[in-house]
Amino acid sequence: MTVTLDRAYWLGLLISVVLPVLVGLVTTRVTAPGTKAVLLLALSTLNGLLVEILHPVQGFNLGTAVVFAAVSFGIGVLAHFGLYKPTGLAARAQDSLVKAQPSPVEYRDA
């Protein structure tokens, strides 16, 4: 059995590695980890659907898109915890674009 991957799949796998940085760019450090995970899952699902839509050889197959979305999410999580977080790239990405708003401080007269 010979397994071949077309350019669309290779591009989708490359995008999967970059997705955690994209999530870091649009969130802040105080964003809940669950929110970041849902955003990564949504972007991975979009990646899987787009790769399957752009696949030139065969028509759209929802099963393949779901499998590729799961693979994309797994690669994104592994890239975040295995590459971006230990090297500090995740923290730098979160500090670059979106800034957390400081919470209002209440002043009381003593």
Give structural notes.
The chain is mostly helical. The chain has helices spanning 7-26, 33-54, 62-87, 89-96. The model has no long low-confidence stretch (mean pLDDT 84).
What brief labels describe this structure?
4 helices; 110 residues; mainly alpha
Produce the secondary structure layout.
Elements: H1 7-26, H2 33-54, H3 62-87, H4 89-96
Would you summarize the structure shown here?
This protein is mainly alpha-helical and 110 residues long.
Q: Please compute the radius of gyration using only Cα atoms.
A: 18 Å
Q: Give the DSSP E fraction (strand runs of 2 or more residues).
A: under 5%
Helix content: 55-70%
The string of secondary-structure elements, in order, is: HHHH
Mean pLDDT metric: 84
Q: Major sheet: size, sense and barrel closure? A: none
Please identify the structural class as seen in this structure: mainly alpha
Tell how many strands the DSSP assignment holds: 0
What is the tally of helical segments?
Answer: 4
